[in-house]
């Protein structure tokens, strides 16, 4: 009996030990699980913080791309397919590119002259034949003849074991504004160079044109005291006065052009009958026409009131009439106007003179340009006519054939 009790007591003690061991193990497992959970939680928090950081960087990256108007793309060199990862270029009808298509197909969107060059450059870069890619090109606007300017760069991000590129990443930006600025700068430079050239031409021409009548005035004046004959003295005096008028006309023309272009001379508007003005001009020029040439008028109405700057209209028509008188040796000169249309008056001077070759129709309105260098004049008259016509809100032009006479016209608001 005693043995049985001892055995039972020993068995109970063994069970207690096992229970304690199991309990300790469970506690240890729970502690380990707690530590593991804490570790995993910390790791999860770190990963979440890292993910938030990556998201923030991605947002910032997108913001930079959007602010710069960039697109980011990559090319699988094995297939030649081009994919746009991000595209923040200004959108246009038809899209900015063909996602998933070959770069050759995307090159077809470019202006033809640029497409071949860009496709070859990118193809050589993807094949490893060149070390860099940078192209500036024009992209066609669908259903239009317009185009946009774009600039692209690319780098190689992956290579195979032989060093051949397998992945190319690039960026593209629309640069229309930059090209406009470049064109504006080129235009400004061209204008500056042209202005410098015109300044030099102006000084050279003015020096020559002023010296010619001035030499005559000085020369004739110096010999005038030695002339005893009354007729010869009067002839010299007439020549001096004639050259005085030429010199004054040159200076007046230059001053008028300068004042008008500088905006220092305001329009003096007045209403008057254009018929009366044209009659006065004809009376003034009748004594100046060459023998055998008739000077007449042709009006579309017995009276035509016009509101404009009288002085500028008269000066313009005087120059046109003076030209007609100078270049017409026989035939006729007619001063007139057509019926007012759309509130505009079309005046003209028609002559049977030597005419103007078509290639010179625009050039004769340039400063100092002279069709015939042997004909007296500074070449400023028609240039002044154009400046004054523009200031009146009108324009001047010529219709002419060489040897068949000319029609110079002035079109102004009525």
Question: Poorly predicted ranges (pLDDT <50, ≥5 residues)?
Answer: none
How are the strands of the biggest sheet laid out side by side?
2-1-5-4-3
Q: How many helical stretches?
A: 8
CATH superfamily of the largest domain: Histidine kinase-like ATPase, C-terminal domain
Q: CATH class of the largest domain, anyone? A: Alpha Beta
Q: Provide the residue-averaged pLDDT.
A: 80
Radius of gyration, CA atoms, in whole angstroms: 45 Å
Largest sheet: 5 strands, antiparallel
CATH second-level architecture of the largest domain: 2-Layer Sandwich
| Content-based structural category | alpha+beta
Beta fraction? 15-25%
Give the proportion of residues in helices: 40-55%
Number of strands: 12
Summarize the structure in words.
The protein has 414 residues and is of the alpha+beta class. The chain folds into four domains: 67 residues; 106 residues, PAS domain (Beta-Lactamase, 2-Layer Sandwich); 86 residues, Signal transduction histidine kinase, dimerisation/phosphotransfer (DHp) domain (Helix Hairpins, Orthogonal Bundle); 149 residues, 2-Layer Sandwich (Heat Shock Protein 90). The strands form three sheets. The protein has a five-stranded antiparallel beta sheet, sandwiched between helices. Strands 7-9-10-12-11 form a five-stranded mixed beta sheet, with helices on one face. A two-stranded antiparallel sheet has the order 6-8. Strand 4 and strand 5 form a beta hairpin. Helix 6 packs parallel to helix 7 and helix 7 packs antiparallel against helix 8. The protein is rod-shaped and about 170 Å long. The protein starts with a helix and ends with a strand.
């Amino acid at each position: 009996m005693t043995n049985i009790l001892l055995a039972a007591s020993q068995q109970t003690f063994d069970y207690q030990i096992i229970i304690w061991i199991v309990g300790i193990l469970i506690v240890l497992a729970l502690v380990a699980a707690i530590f593991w959970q804490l570790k995993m939680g910390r790791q999860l928090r770190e990963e979440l913080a890292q993910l938030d950081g990556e998201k923030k960087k991605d947002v910032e990256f997108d913001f930079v791309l959007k602010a710069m108007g960039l697109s980011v793309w990559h090319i699988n060199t094995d297939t030649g397919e081009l994919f746009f990862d991000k595209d923040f270029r200004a959108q246009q009808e038809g899209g900015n590119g063909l996602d998933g298509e070959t770069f050759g197909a995307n090159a077809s969107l470019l202006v033809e002259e640029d497409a071949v060059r860009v496709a070859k450059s990118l193809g050589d870069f993807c094949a490893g034949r060149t070390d860099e890619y940078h192209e500036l090109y024009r992209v066609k606007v669908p259903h239009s003849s317009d185009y946009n300017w774009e600039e692209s760069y690319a780098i190689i991000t992956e290579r195979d074991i032989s060093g051949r590129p397998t992945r190319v990443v690039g960026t593209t930006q629309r640069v229309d504004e930059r090209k406009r600025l470049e064109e504006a700068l080129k235009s400004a430079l061209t204008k500056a160079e042209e202005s410098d050239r015109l300044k030099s031409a102006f000084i050279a021409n003015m020096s020559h044109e002023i010296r010619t009548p001035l030499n005559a005035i000085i020369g004739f004046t110096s010999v005038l005291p030695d002339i005893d004959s009354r007729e010869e003295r009067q002839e010299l005096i007439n020549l001096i006065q004639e050259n005085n008028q030429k010199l004054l006309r040159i200076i007046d023309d230059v001053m008028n052009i300068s004042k008008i272009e500088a905006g220092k001379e305001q329009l003096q508007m007045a209403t008057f009958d254009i018929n009366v003005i044209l009659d006065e001009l004809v009376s003034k020029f009748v004594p100046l026409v060459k023998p055998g040439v008739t000077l007449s008028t042709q009006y579309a109405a017995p009276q035509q009131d016009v509101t404009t700057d009288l002085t500028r209209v008269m000066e313009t028509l005087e120059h046109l009439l003076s030209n007609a008188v100078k270049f017409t040796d026989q035939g006729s000169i007619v001063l007139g106007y057509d019926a007012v249309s759309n509130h505009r008056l079309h005046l003209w001077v028609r002559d049977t003179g030597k005419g103007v070759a078509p290639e010179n129709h625009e050039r004769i309105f340039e400063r100092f340009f002279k069709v015939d260098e042997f004909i007296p004049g500074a070449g400023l008259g028609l240039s002044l006519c154009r400046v004054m016509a523009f200031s009146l809100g009108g324009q001047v032009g010529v219709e002419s054939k060489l040897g068949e006479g000319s029609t110079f016209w002035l079109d102004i608001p009525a």
